Protein backbone atom coordinates (compact mmCIF):
# COMPACT_ATOMS: atom_id res chain seq x y z
CA UNK A 1 0.00 0.00 0.00
CA UNK A 2 2.76 2.45 0.92
CA UNK A 3 4.68 1.49 -2.20
CA UNK A 4 1.67 2.34 -4.41
CA UNK A 5 1.26 5.74 -2.72
CA UNK A 6 4.95 6.55 -3.20
CA UNK A 7 4.74 5.41 -6.81
CA UNK A 8 1.62 7.54 -7.43
CA UNK A 9 3.26 10.63 -5.88
CA UNK A 10 6.39 10.03 -7.96
CA UNK A 11 4.29 9.67 -11.14
CA UNK A 12 2.47 12.90 -10.27
CA UNK A 13 5.77 14.76 -9.89
CA UNK A 14 7.01 13.39 -13.22
CA UNK A 15 3.77 14.46 -14.92
CA UNK A 16 3.94 17.97 -13.43
CA UNK A 17 7.60 18.32 -14.42
CA UNK A 18 6.80 17.23 -17.98
CA UNK A 19 3.94 19.73 -18.21
CA UNK A 20 6.24 22.47 -16.92
CA UNK A 21 8.90 21.66 -19.54
CA UNK A 22 6.35 21.55 -22.38
CA UNK A 23 4.81 24.89 -21.35
CA UNK A 24 8.26 26.48 -21.10
CA UNK A 25 9.17 25.32 -24.62
CA UNK A 26 5.80 26.52 -25.92
CA UNK A 27 6.44 29.94 -24.38
CA UNK A 28 9.80 30.16 -26.17
CA UNK A 29 8.19 29.12 -29.48
CA UNK A 30 5.56 31.86 -29.11
CA UNK A 31 8.20 34.48 -28.30
CA UNK A 32 10.29 33.36 -31.29
CA UNK A 33 7.26 33.52 -33.61
CA UNK A 34 6.36 37.01 -32.40
CA UNK A 35 9.92 38.33 -32.69
CA UNK A 36 10.41 36.82 -36.15
CA UNK A 37 7.18 38.48 -37.29
CA UNK A 38 8.39 41.81 -35.92
CA UNK A 39 11.83 41.43 -37.49
CA UNK A 40 10.32 40.54 -40.88
CA UNK A 41 8.28 43.76 -40.72
CA UNK A 42 11.43 45.89 -40.39
CA UNK A 43 14.00 43.82 -42.31
CA UNK A 44 14.82 40.30 -43.45
CA UNK A 45 15.38 37.10 -41.49
CA UNK A 46 17.97 34.63 -42.74
CA UNK A 47 19.09 31.34 -41.21
CA UNK A 48 22.78 30.51 -41.50
CA UNK A 49 24.28 27.42 -39.80
CA UNK A 50 21.42 27.22 -37.28
CA UNK A 51 21.85 30.91 -36.45
CA UNK A 52 19.06 33.41 -36.99
CA UNK A 53 20.23 36.63 -38.65
CA UNK A 54 18.26 39.87 -38.82
CA UNK A 55 19.31 41.93 -41.84
CA UNK A 56 18.58 45.66 -41.98
CA UNK A 57 19.71 48.21 -44.55
CA UNK A 58 22.79 49.06 -42.47
CA UNK A 59 23.71 45.96 -40.46
CA UNK A 60 23.33 42.21 -40.04
CA UNK A 61 22.60 41.05 -36.48
CA UNK A 62 22.56 37.60 -34.96
CA UNK A 63 19.41 37.10 -32.87
CA UNK A 64 19.80 35.16 -29.62
CA UNK A 65 17.28 34.31 -26.89
CA UNK A 66 18.14 34.34 -23.19
CA UNK A 67 15.48 32.86 -20.92
CA UNK A 68 15.24 33.56 -17.21
CA UNK A 69 12.61 33.84 -14.48
CA UNK A 70 10.14 36.70 -14.69
CA UNK A 71 11.39 38.41 -11.52
CA UNK A 72 15.07 37.50 -11.83
CA UNK A 73 17.65 40.27 -12.14
CA UNK A 74 20.27 40.19 -14.89
CA UNK A 75 23.60 41.92 -14.34
CA UNK A 76 26.28 42.01 -17.03
CA UNK A 77 29.66 41.75 -15.28
CA UNK A 78 31.71 41.54 -18.48
CA UNK A 79 31.18 40.52 -22.09
CA UNK A 80 31.15 36.83 -21.21
CA UNK A 81 30.21 36.74 -17.51
CA UNK A 82 26.55 37.40 -16.71
CA UNK A 83 24.93 37.11 -13.29
CA UNK A 84 21.31 36.10 -12.72
CA UNK A 85 19.90 36.79 -9.26
CA UNK A 86 16.69 34.94 -8.52
CA UNK A 87 15.00 34.78 -5.10
CA UNK A 88 18.20 35.68 -3.28
CA UNK A 89 20.41 33.15 -5.06
CA UNK A 90 23.07 34.28 -7.47
CA UNK A 91 24.22 32.32 -10.51
CA UNK A 92 27.14 33.44 -12.68
CA UNK A 93 26.91 32.24 -16.27
CA UNK A 94 29.80 32.05 -18.73
CA UNK A 95 28.46 33.24 -22.10
CA UNK A 96 31.59 32.64 -24.17
CA UNK A 97 29.98 30.03 -26.42
CA UNK A 98 26.58 31.77 -26.45
CA UNK A 99 28.09 35.02 -27.79
CA UNK A 100 30.67 33.51 -30.15
CA UNK A 101 30.07 34.72 -33.69
CA UNK A 102 31.29 37.41 -36.04
CA UNK A 103 28.00 39.32 -36.13
CA UNK A 104 26.78 41.96 -33.69
CA UNK A 105 24.08 40.44 -31.53
CA UNK A 106 20.55 41.22 -30.45
CA UNK A 107 19.83 39.26 -27.29
CA UNK A 108 16.12 38.92 -26.53
CA UNK A 109 15.74 38.54 -22.76
CA UNK A 110 12.47 36.88 -21.80
CA UNK A 111 10.19 36.97 -19.80
CA UNK A 112 12.12 39.23 -17.42
CA UNK A 113 10.42 42.40 -16.20
CA UNK A 114 13.37 43.64 -14.13
CA UNK A 115 15.72 46.34 -15.38
CA UNK A 116 18.97 44.92 -16.78
CA UNK A 117 22.14 46.27 -15.18
CA UNK A 118 25.75 46.40 -16.32
CA UNK A 119 29.02 47.09 -14.56
CA UNK A 120 31.03 49.73 -16.42
CA UNK A 121 34.01 49.32 -14.09
CA UNK A 122 34.75 47.67 -10.75
CA UNK A 123 32.42 49.85 -8.70
CA UNK A 124 30.02 51.60 -11.10
CA UNK A 125 26.81 50.14 -12.44
CA UNK A 126 24.39 51.52 -15.04
CA UNK A 127 20.96 50.48 -16.22
CA UNK A 128 20.95 48.99 -19.70
CA UNK A 129 18.51 50.62 -22.09
CA UNK A 130 17.40 48.78 -25.23
CA UNK A 131 19.06 51.49 -27.33
CA UNK A 132 22.46 50.84 -25.73
CA UNK A 133 25.01 48.83 -27.65
CA UNK A 134 28.03 47.51 -25.75
CA UNK A 135 30.41 44.59 -26.24
CA UNK A 136 29.00 44.31 -29.77
CA UNK A 137 25.53 43.37 -28.49
CA UNK A 138 22.17 44.81 -27.52
CA UNK A 139 20.07 43.40 -24.69
CA UNK A 140 16.36 43.88 -25.34
CA UNK A 141 13.56 42.53 -23.17
CA UNK A 142 10.91 40.84 -25.32
CA UNK A 143 8.24 43.49 -24.66
CA UNK A 144 10.61 46.33 -25.72
CA UNK A 145 11.43 44.97 -29.17
CA UNK A 146 8.48 46.52 -31.02
CA UNK A 147 9.29 50.00 -29.66
CA UNK A 148 12.96 49.72 -30.59
CA UNK A 149 12.16 48.62 -34.13
CA UNK A 150 9.59 51.42 -34.57
CA UNK A 151 12.14 54.00 -33.39
CA UNK A 152 14.60 52.76 -36.02
CA UNK A 153 17.39 52.15 -33.50
CA UNK A 154 18.51 48.97 -35.27
Outline:
With 154 residues, the chain is an alpha/beta fold. The chain contains two helices and ten strands; from the N terminus they run H-E-E-E-E-E-E-E-E-E-E-H. It has helices at residues 2-42, 145-151, and strands spanning 44-48, 51-55, 60-67, 73-76, 81-86, 89-94, 105-110, 117-119, 125-127, 137-141.
What does this structure look like?
This protein is of the alpha/beta class and 154 residues long. The chain has one domain (2-151). The protein is built from two helices and ten strands; from the N terminus they run H-E-E-E-E-E-E-E-E-E-E-H. The strands form two sheets. The chain has a five-stranded mixed β-sheet, covered by helices on one side. Strands 6-5-4-8-9 form a five-stranded mixed β-sheet, with no helix packed on it. A hairpin with a 2-residue loop joins strand 5 (81-86) and strand 6 (89-94). Helix 1 packs parallel to helix 2. The protein starts with a helix and ends with a helix.
Largest sheet: 5 strands, mixed
Please tell me the total number of domains: 1
Total number of helices: 2
What is the helical fraction, as a range of percent?
Answer: 25-40%
Q: What is the beta-strand fraction?
A: 25-35%
Taking the alpha carbons of the first and last residues, their distance comes to 63 Å
Mean pLDDT: 91
Rg, please? 19 Å
Amino acid sequence: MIFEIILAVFALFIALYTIFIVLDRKKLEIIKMNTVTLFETYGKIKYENKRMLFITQNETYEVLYFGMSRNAELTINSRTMWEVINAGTSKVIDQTVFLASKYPKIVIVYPSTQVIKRYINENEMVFVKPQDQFYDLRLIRDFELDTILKEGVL
